[in-house]
Amino acid sequence: MRAIRRFTVRPVLPEALLPLGELAGNLRWSWHPPTQDLFASIDQQLWTRSRQDPTRMLGLVPTARLEELAEDADFRARLEAVHADLRDYLENPRWFQGLPEGAPRGIAYFSPEFGITAALPQYSGGLGILAGDHLKSASDLGVPIIGVGLLYRHGYFKQSLSREGWQQERYPVLDPDELPISVLREADGSLAKVTVGMPEGQTATARVWVANVGRVPLLLLDTDVEENNEVLRDITDRLYGGQTEHRLRQEMLLGIGGVRAIRTFTRLTDRPAPEVFHTNEGHAGFLGLERIRELTEEQGLEFDAALEVSRAGTVFTTHTPVPAGIDRFPRELVAQYFGGDNAQPGVPVERILALGAESYEGGDPGVFNMAVMGFRLSQRANGVSQLHGHVSRGMFGGLWPAFDESERPIGSITNGVHAPTWVAREIFDLAREMGVDPDSSPQADSPERVFEVADQVPGKRVWEIKRILRERLVLDARRRLKESWLERGASSAELKWVDSALDPDVLTIGFARRVPSYKRLTLMLRDPARLKALLLDPERPIQLLIAGKAHPADDGGKRLINEIVRFADDPEVRHRIVFMPNYDIAMAQPLYPGCDVWLNNPLRPYEACGTSGMKAALNGGLNLSILDGWWDEWYDGNNGWAIPSADGVEDPDRRDDLESAALYDLIENDVAPRFYDHDADGVPQRWLEMVRHTLRSLGPKVLADRMVRDYVTTLYQPATESARTLNDDYKGALELAAWKDRVRKAWPGVRVDHVDSSGIGDAPEVGAVMKVQAFVTLAGLSPDDVDVQVLHGRVGESDTLRDLTVSPLQLAESYEADRHRYDGEVRLSTSGAFGYTLRVVPRNSHLASVAELGLVTLPS
Ligand SMILES: *Cc1c(COP(=O)(O)O)cnc(C)c1O
After folding, report:
1. Is 585 in the pocket of ligand 1 (CB under 6 A)?
2. What number of other Cβ atoms are within 10 A of residue 714's Cβ?
3. Quick one: which of 644, 646, 608, 610 has its CA closest to 627?
4. Closest CA to 847 of 856, 838, 839
5. DSSP per residue over 596-660, as a string?
6. CA of 704 to the centre of ligand 1 (A)
7. 352, 608, 770, 795 - which has most CB atoms within 10 Å?
8. What residue stretches are annotated with the DUF3417 domain (predicted)?
9. Domains of the chain listed by start with CATH number
10. Roughly how many angstroms between the first and final C-alpha of the chain, as a whole number?
11. 114 lines ligand 1 (CB under 6 A)
12. Strand ranges (DSSP E) for 68-157?
């Protein structure tokens, strides 16, 4: 029989156990083993049944058991200790509180997905996990961030396999009342709501859920409310589901509704308004339009001045080097959604369209590009690894065509991972055995100390722990394999073999990721016979654990999964290669620590950063990867293996042949021999040398704490300073907007009339000093409005300058008719072909980059 209505009855905790509610209601439990142990000790079976989710579990514990615990002095003492620890974590100063004056009072962090714990399935892959790790490390460091996202009624899909091995998708309904979140209410107890205008006079209304991520509140907007019609309710139905228009509605809700949710939340909780707005990928970019609207309506600013204020405090992180992965909308659709009835007086639709226009060579005049708008609405932008920064400066170069790649205003901060979430507790226990404290409290030892002790732990101990972790993974994989086969229609009797599938003593290689084509899930199948031989090697076998979801609309990706599954179904190899359906955080947590080697073979340079290999490294796993993303930056020859990538080879088949052959060779000749080379005690010393080196060299670098500190010091703090100088009475913003307007109008008349160099003779030597003199016409601009610079460096083919150095010239004399002479010197510091040129660029202390206006004048 079906219920006609369902609702969730929340448990009533006895007075003495009230702190349990607070512990369950703060997601810090998801990275704090003592809190998890406390919940597990209430009832081990229910803990497992609730999939280690305290909120769900509290709903299942019988009242009698709760009453018993309320009388149990030992339990109460443990509860008190864990609760006191949480209060201490939430209330006491941390890293950020020790920063000098001038740090931002608040930061808003927008993302379309957040992967925090399996108990809050609001993520699809790397972007969401990164956002979750960002919030967690911000919390550990005391950074005053507020997260903003959407609450999707179905989250992302759950993956299973059909009998024939095809991906199946399910979208179970998530009941918010069963999730570890609470709804935001006004002081009078009514639901807090935000609204966002839609075309044809419609208004989308959303309630706001709050998840507590340690010290960080995460606001999640949800349109599943009575006021909305069917279409509006469905805005938050699925993550990355639906067609173009649906996605546009989602992004309007996230960007515009998100800013409104922040305003409501800070009003109700008396928190300071954020000074910095950070958009994690372009999807939340409309937040800049909403801030411009606020400033025009509430402060009476004109669009241009409001734009300056808003962009000074906005940070944009771009995540994809795959052009097809950039978020774009038809221009007319954006015009329809932001114009007509829904137009805002201070934010004309033409201005909005101009912000997203691909108005550069090769751009498509019919589209509205969210990444391009992201760059125009934020004064500071970054990619997520050094290589990705470089690729992004190339990919978006059209926005600053006259500038050298190195000067385009896109920096990079390499991603990191939240160690307390991803490191097995046994690994941290090893550090404790060696006398260091890897806790995330400010009193804990530094990560350098924690990872340095890797050198002191006896090899035998490390090896014992790795075996425990490998075995745990093997058991988890068998359970998943059995479940999957039962779902595929097999009977238990046919599945005896599963109990001995995989082996806790065999070299274990992990490969799990989403399945877009550039990640090349099936590269390992390029030569099936060779793979089979590696799996079945009588002396040095390997075993492979594979997982990954294909986007529901990506049939190509589903075909790749099917290929892998069919290969792994073969009775000859099925005990050595397993595809585990439904890759998610719950699977990932035992997967990384249990693997000896983490494999990654993307098509370079399409992996912007990648983070799964970092999680493996923190657990003593060795990376075996194409030199892409973070691995390109931190591979040092001894902390794993680089699969040579055939970068220049155009034919993709041939490239795959070359790279897969290199992969097989590495496994056969380097990886497996080292793993199985045991000493008399059965310990592979040479392997462990690499493990130790990995922990020591990568440990401190791959941490999300390092990443968040980098964001604070190199982006959030400078953005705060910029925003404050413009915000003060908005005088700075008005001046800056007027100045930009004046400079843009005058610029076509700016000229370099003449350049002279002298002082180095015919045969200059290293150390010689060249004098440079330039005459320029400034077309009504003042010499204070510009910089005149010599660009010099080595010259390559067709006289292109490389390894540029920029040296300023000084104003020497001004003449009539706007002509000026500039003088300066350049020391020739290297031998070989040398060249120079001159340029005039706008100068203003409010600019964060010389390329910001895209204006430059070179000698004609
Ligand atoms: C870390 C992680 C990812 C991202 O891994 P990449 O290396 O960026 O592909 C995706 N899904 C889950 C569940 C993860 O834990």
Report:
1. yes
2. 16
3. 644
4. 856
5. SEEEE---TT--S---HHHHHHHTTPEEEEES-HHHHHH--SSSEEEEPP-TT---HHHHHHHHH
6. 14
7. 608
8. 13-120
9. 15-91 (no CATH), 105-415+711-727 (3.40.50.2000), 437-700 (3.40.50.2000), 742-842 (2.60.40.2440)
10. 83
11. no
12. 107-110, 114-115, 121-122, 145-150
Distance of alpha carbon 671 from alpha carbon 477, whole angstroms: 23
Mutate to test the pocket of ligand 1, among 606, 612, 707 (most ligand atoms within 8 A of CB): 612
CA 612 to ligand 1: nearest atom: 7
**Atom 4 of ligand 1 has which residue's CA nearest to it?**
126
Query: Can you give the three-state secondary structure of 230-253, one letter per residue?
Result: HHHHHHHCCCCCCCHHHHHHHHHH
Distance CA 217, CA 233 (A): 24
CA–CA gap between residue 605 and residue 467 (Å, rounded)? 34
Burial class (CB in 10 A: 0-12, 13-18, 19+), 538: exposed
Q: Give the atom of ligand 1 at the shortest distance from the alpha carbon of 600.
A: 7
Nearest to 158 by CA among 584, 519, 546: 584
Tokens of 173: 């309904």
382 three-class SS? strand
Per-residue model confidence (pLDDT) at position 26: 98
Both tokens of 347, joined, read 């934010």
- Position 364 scores a pLDDT of 96
Best residue among 116, 589, 611, 615 to mutate for probing ligand 1's pocket (most ligand atoms within 8 Å of CB) is: 611
* pLDDT for position 732: 94
Token pair for 118: 């399996």
Which of the residues in the chain have pLDDT under 70? 6-9
Q: What is the pLDDT of residue 798?
A: 83
Nearest ligand 1 atom to alpha carbon 589 = 15
Angle separating helix axes 331-338 and 244-252, nearest 10 degrees: 40
Q: Ligand 1 centre and the CA of 345: distance in Å?
A: 43
Which residue among 513, 583, 628 is best mutated to probe the pocket of ligand 1, counting the most ligand atoms within 8 A of its Cβ? Answer: 513
Residue type, 253: L
- Asked whether the CA dihedral 349, 295, 99, 137 is positive or negative, the reply is negative
Chain-centre distance of CA 377, in angstroms? 20
